[in-house]
Design a protein that fits this description.
Growth Hormone, Chain: A; mainly alpha; globular; three-stranded antiparallel β-sheet; 3 strands; about 425 residues
Length: about 425
């Protein structure tokens, strides 16, 4: 039995749903053959995959000194391994997505996890810095293509009015990895050596691979090729929301990258208490991303306006109340919640505005996020290098204030007219 589901698009009750050329709203067939329990298992599997890949991305940060010593390179050279992964994700992810656009999404998920496990196993076995760097680029690209395929599989197994919530579950794998996976990996690395932490990543990736083989159903790709997808995925309306995504994360990481110096010099927090502040922020982000799907399903554009305003207010509060540890903790909780809540809506808007190009577009927000992180970190670094620890927060605040009118302007963007629902349909077959 085949189940018609919808690839990236707005649910039928939404006013901003793409319309076909006859002026009627596209019909959406719900995947009634999949029980809610089965759908939850599939989403949990996709969450696990995102958690494992997200943990591997950040793992190098916690064991940077150990890797530098073992590979006999400087700390800055070892830090390039983080940049290499981000570059692989930002550039290689969309490229691999284009190359695999006509493949079954389940096959893409399986292939990405298998190759990701091999790439990380290679890291354990080699001692050459150049090969290590190349393997990190490949691993980043594989995470990028996995992200796009995971969103396709996730929204294909739920009714259209729950697509935002499905996206939030998938995205939450990354946010939880930042709050939990990376710190745990660091502990393993400190206890067993950095290779031990990467062996753990390989093991978890294999578990995610087995779960995907057993639980995730076949999700056929759409008929259009990479060229047809790119025409819609890189339309100006989509690029506008990708630009918004870039600015949101630039504002966040201009401040967040240098949060530790801020806590030490301004708030007066040191030692293990710093980890508690970082954990609180990570937990708030994860909680926000889990709950943000409901807001995306209701009104993603409005959620982005409220969220960007909340980020700006939170950064302003951090600057004004930086001397109070309790108030700073509350400010970080608010910042994490607003960022987490916005994330599913950013993904939702990009995919819906791309219309028939949603299969490719769903890999692009991750690229915009990584470029935004790189830009924001650099901007905050310039600011803090020439001023006080608070200057990075001010830099983030300035960018955040600019983001608010951008979010308001993008709220008027509408999805394109399409020929009909068939152009956007994906087929879900029981595994």
């Amino acid at each position: 039995m085949e189940i018609s589901a919808v690839s990236p698009a707005q649910p039928a009750h939404r006013p901003d749903l793409p319309r076909n050329t006859t002026g009627k709203k596209n019909m959406i067939t719900q995947p009634a053959a999949l029980s809610p329990g089965r759908a939850r298992l599939i989403l949990a599997t996709l969450f696990l995959g995102m958690f494992v890949l997200g943990s591997a991305e950040l793992l190098v940060v916690g064991v940077l000194d150990l890797i530098a010593d073992d590979l006999q390179v400087s700390i800055p050279a070892a830090g390039t391994l983080v940049t290499a992964y981000a570059a692989g994700l930002a550039l290689g992810g969309p490229i691999l997505t284009m190359l695999t656009i006509k493949l079954n999404r389940r096959a893409v998920l399986i292939g990405a996890l298998l190759l990701f496990a091999l790439a990380n196993l290679l890291l354990v076995l080699i001692t050459d810095y150049g090969l290590f760097l190349a393997a990190r680029v490949v691993a980043g690209a594989l995470q990028g293509v996995f992200i796009g395929a995971a969103f396709s599989a996730g929204i294909a197994v739920v009714p259209p009015e729950r697509m935002g919530r499905a996206m939030s579950v998938v995205i939450s794998g990354v946010t939880v990895s930042a709050a939990l996976g990376s710190p745990l990996g660091t502990l393993i690395g400190q206890a067993l050596g950095w290779r031990g932490s990467f062996i753990a990543v390989v093991g978890l990736t294999v578990i995610a691979l087995i779960a995907t083989l057993v639980l995730v159903p076949s999700v056929a790709s759409i008929d259009s090729g990479a060229v047809g997808q790119a025409k819609h995925a890189f339309a100006r309306r989509v690029l506008a929301v990708l630009g918004l995504t870039f600015l949101v994360y630039a504002s966040l990481y201009a401040a967040l990258t240098y949060l530790v110096p801020f806590l030490q010099d301004v708030t007066g927090v040191s030692g293990a208490l710093i980890s508690a502040f970082l954990l609180a922020y990570g937990a708030a982000t994860a909680a926000g991303s889990f709950s943000g799907g409901r807001f995306a399903d209701t009104n993603a554009a409005r959620t982005l306006i409220v969220g960007t305003t909340g980020v700006a207010v939170s950064l302003l509060a951090l600057y004004l109340i930086g001397g109070s540890a309790v108030l700073v903790a509350l400010g970080l909780l608010a910042l994490g919640l607003f960022i987490g809540v916005m994330t599913p809506s950013l993904q939702y808007r990009v995919m819906s505005l791309a219309g028939p190009g949603g299969a490719l577009a769903q890999s692009l927000p991750a690229s915009a996020v990584n470029v935004g992180i790189a830009f924001g970190s650099a901007a905050g670094g310039v600011a803090i290098g020439s001023s006080t620890a608070s200057s990075a927060v001010i830099t983030g605040l300035i960018i955040a204030v600019i983001v608010i009118p951008v979010a308001w302007a993008t709220s008027f963007l509408k999805p394109p007219a399409v020929q009909g629902a068939a152009e956007r349909a994906a087929t879900v077959e029981p595994a």
